[in-house]
Amino acid sequence: IKNIAVLTSGGDAPGMNACIRAVVRTGVYYGKNMFGVIQGYQGLINNNIEAMNARSVSNIIHLGGTILKTARCLKFKEDAGMELAYQNLKAKGIDGLVVIGGDGTFTGAKRFAEKYDIKVIGVPGTIDNDLYGSDFTLGYDTAINTVIEAIDKIRDTADSHDRLFFIEVMGRDSGCIALRSAIASGAEAVLLPERETSLKELITKLKEGASTKKSSSIVIVSEGNKYGGAYDIAHAVKRKFKHYDTKVTILGHLQRGGSPSGFDRILGSRLGFAATKALIKGETLKMAGLHGNEIKLTNLADALNKNNYKLEDDLLEMTHVLSI
Ligand code: ATP
């Protein structure tokens, strides 16, 4: 491996910049020529690939978002798009690629590395924490801290008015953000895409809370739960349970932004360092991930296998017990 490019793809996540910095500086340290691809796979197709050096990544470790920009790129799913991406990389002599993104990004990376003679290592960069092979994905810690801060503020007003708040958080397919932010904010209930909570169960829980003199209630709703959005579930509950004044807050894109937490800066640095060293060693089709306190490689195929990924049932049980 002589020339290595790095890109960010899919949704942006805090900590991506710390990771880009680590990839570029590790490559430079080991004598490689480094490149940054602007706008993910779209940038590969458009030949938007720039040389980078140690100074290109100065003063970015604390920044949210990604200096390389990101994009969702349908053309990369087509053979012709992939071929164009390959030709552009080949023309620059690039033989190694670090991709920072989520499961869509890895699906593309796997197809690409299987088809062409370019080695690819993935870094799990998504606020969703929904990949097997890393205890935590890059951006997740910052995102849940952002959510918790917002819920704390909402609780102040909920408490003052005896209100029932439904707070919708991100996670179309994964309830990780919802579950952990529910624990950390002391929410009364949480609705997740992975589990069926019936309306009856939810109302029973809220009624119990009301009868034991809870002055306010917070219900965290993951956007991918079976009832639809927080407004739908709030309407359904309101019809059957009139005790509270019901309000809805959708946190939306604020969950993606902000300066990365210390945890995400360190994780981004470690994953970027490990991914680049793995590429230099000749590894490919793998993802660098955190296991306990060690960074290990997992096959992209395993990281993408949805059967491998499991929501923590013990945490869900604990949320239920601690919210009596
Ligand atoms: P997030 O978890 O934040 O949404 P993601 O990586 O899953 O991140 P996606 O938009 O699903 O985000 O995927 C990113 C990009 O990966 C897509 O825009 C597309 O260019 C590429 N990609 C996704 N699926 C494939 C595929 N089957 N073949 C080739 N490329 C793909």
Please describe the structure with a list of short key phrases separated by commas or semicolons.
single chain; 324 residues; alpha/beta; 7-stranded mixed beta sheet; 4-stranded parallel beta sheet; binds adenosine-5'-triphosphate; kinase; allosteric enzyme; glycolysis; nucleotide-binding
Architecture overview:
- The structure is a single chain.
- The protein is α/β, with parallel strands linked by helices and about 325 residues long.
- It is about 40% helix and about 20% strand.
- The protein contains eleven helices and eleven strands.
- The protein has helices spanning about 15-30, 40-45, 80-90, 105-115, 140-160, 175-185, 200-210, 230-240, 260-280, 300-305, 315-320, and strands at about 5-10, 35, 50, 95-100, 120-125, 165-170, 190, 215-220, 245-250, 285-290, 295-300.
- The strands form two sheets. Strands 3-2-1-4-5-10-11 form a seven-stranded mixed beta sheet, sandwiched between helices. Strands 7-8-6-9 form a four-stranded parallel beta sheet, sandwiched between helices.
- Helix 1 (about 15-30) packs parallel to helix 9, helix 5 (about 140-160) packs across helix 6 (about 175-185) and helix 6 (about 175-185) runs parallel beside helix 11 (about 315-320).
- The model has no long low-confidence stretch (mean pLDDT about 95).
- Adenosine-5'-triphosphate (ATP) binds near residues 72, 77, 108 and 128.
- Its cofactor is Mg(2+).
- It is an enzyme of class 2 (transferase).
- It is found in: Cytoplasm.
